[in-house]
Specification:
233 residues, mainly alpha, Recoverin, domain 1, two-stranded antiparallel ribbon, 42% helix, EF_hand_dom, calcium ion binding, EF-hand-dom_pair, calcium, cadherin binding
Length: 233
């Protein structure tokens, strides 16, 4: 165990210590609660080394779009990613750029067809063109706001072909009752957007500018979708 989670060096992890550490995965409390319940098999609120390993594997599954269930434990996934720079499990940016994109080729073709049908300009769709597609999903407004935040990776208020595919992927996940993550997992960052120096999955959500001078420029036209979404983490 790393001293970060086993502060007493007792060979086990208390719920309070584990919660602080696991939150650095960027997953929602709902997902982390499910992971804890599966890992803490005897319900004592303490994880031994084997149970903590199970929790880490489930974090990796969730970050890569797989079900949080014991049946996912045997599936091949990259190591879990945490935003703490002291973590021994932190993936370097170069390694994370090798993670295969979670959007499958056949799904990408479908998303591309929708993208082209919305008449992109210079390969970009403005927020007002994307908004009806998002609203058509009938998902809650706060979820759609988070989908927009996560998919507009370069924060330009427009979605290119790859960013639109991310938005559609997240919408379909949400429709399947999969939780929309708080930060974009490395596996969902399009290869075209990956930078060797940064760590995808540890990207903060940048709140829109608050000054009246440039707020109308920095907020996308779907700003109303994000209105209920917390601007900071």
């Amino acid at each position: 165990f790393s001293p970060q989670v086993d502060s007493a060096n007792a060979g086990r992890v208390l719920a309070s210590d584990a919660a602080v550490f696991l939150k650095k995965s960027g997953l929602t409390d709902l997902v982390l609660g499910k992971i804890w319940d599966l890992a803490d098999t005897d319900g004592k609120g303490i994880l031994n080394k084997q149970e903590f390993f199970v929790a880490l594997r489930l974090v990796a599954c969730a970050q890569n779009g797989l079900d949080v269930s014991l049946s996912s434990l045997n599936l091949p996934v990259p190591p879990p990613r945490f935003t703490d720079t002291n973590s021994p499990l932190l993936l370097s940016g170069t390694a994370s750029s090798d993670v295969p994109w979670a959007v499958k080729l056949e799904d990408k073709a479908k998303y591309d067809a929708i993208f082209d049908s919305l008449n992109p300009v210079n390969g970009l769709l403005s927020g007002d063109k994307v908004k009806p597609v998002l609203l058509n999903s009938k998902l809650p407004v706060d979820i759609l706001g988070r989908v927009w935040e996560l998919s507009d990776i370069d924060r330009d208020g427009m979605l290119d072909r790859d960013e639109f595919a991310v938005a559609m992927f997240l919408v379909y996940c949400a429709l399947e009752k999969e939780p929309v993550p708080m930060s974009l997992p490395a596996a969902l960052v399009p290869p075209s957007k990956r930078k060797p120096v940064s760590v995808p999955g540890a990207m903060p959500l940048i709140p829109p500018a608050t000054s009246t001078k440039d707020s109308h420029q920095s907020l996308p036209p779907v700003g109303i979708l994000a209105a209920k979404t917390p601007l900071t983490q």
